[in-house]
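Subject: design request, 196 residues
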């Protein structure tokens, strides 16, 4: 039997931390090319380099059948009309699915099927969960006024592929229109800004 610390974890949905787990911090400067509005991104960087999100991860064991999990916390805010977001990724092991559970705040997930190219925007709020199938790029955004906190559970073998997203980015963006999040074609959004 594993040690108690490997079986039980205590997390804090207010701080987005898990006792004893390492936390990665992503600041605005780490998110170059993630926001479609590059002009607003550069302008925001001139104002400072705030923390956009943190991820505390627990990776008890590697190998087939094992699970890893994390708590993500995304701050409220926007760059232009785009809500604060995660880098977004595919799993290195493409068939790996993931399960997200909302703990606090008001968020949305952007899913993009890499085979069909189809996109979906789904609520991620307390008492709801989003199933991210394999072969699906996923990004999380905070569309509310308080930090968004969620738990993600994924196969230990999933791995992160940020490269593919960095090269092509998502086809769609979640932006604020009339105070509400809407899903738009990236190209249409960028054209509307006069950037192409
Ligand atoms: C891992 C899982 C999450 C994300 C976290 C941050 O498979 O999807 O732990 O890593 O939400 O997002 P990102 O895109 O920066 O890894
Ligand atoms: Zn993932």
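Subject: RE: design request

Done. Sequence follows.
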């Amino acid at each position: 039997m594993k040690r108690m610390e490997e079986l039980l974890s205590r997390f804090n949905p207010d701080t987005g931390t898990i006792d004893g787990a390492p936390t990665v911090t992503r600041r605005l400067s780490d998110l170059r090319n993630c926001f479609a509005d590059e002009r607003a991104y550069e302008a925001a960087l001139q104002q400072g380099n705030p923390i956009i999100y943190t991820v505390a991860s627990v990776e008890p064991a590697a190998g087939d059948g094992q699970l890893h999990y994390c708590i993500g916390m995304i701050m409220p805010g926007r760059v232009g009309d785009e809500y604060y977001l995660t880098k977004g990724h595919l799993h290195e092991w493409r068939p790996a699915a993931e399960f997200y559970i909302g703990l606090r705040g008001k968020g949305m997930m952007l899913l993009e099927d890499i085979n069909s190219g189809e996109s979906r925007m789904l609520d991620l709020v307390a008492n709801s969960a989003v199933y991210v199938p394999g072969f699906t790029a996923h990004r999380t955004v905070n569309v509310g006024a308080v930090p968004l906190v969620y738990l993600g559970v994924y196969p230990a073998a999933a791995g992160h592929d940020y490269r593919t997203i960095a090269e092509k980015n998502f086809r769609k963006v979640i932006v604020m229109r009339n105070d509400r999040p809407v899903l738009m074609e990236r190209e249409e959004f960028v054209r509307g800004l006069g950037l192409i």
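The CA atoms of residues 94 and 135 lie 5 Å apart.
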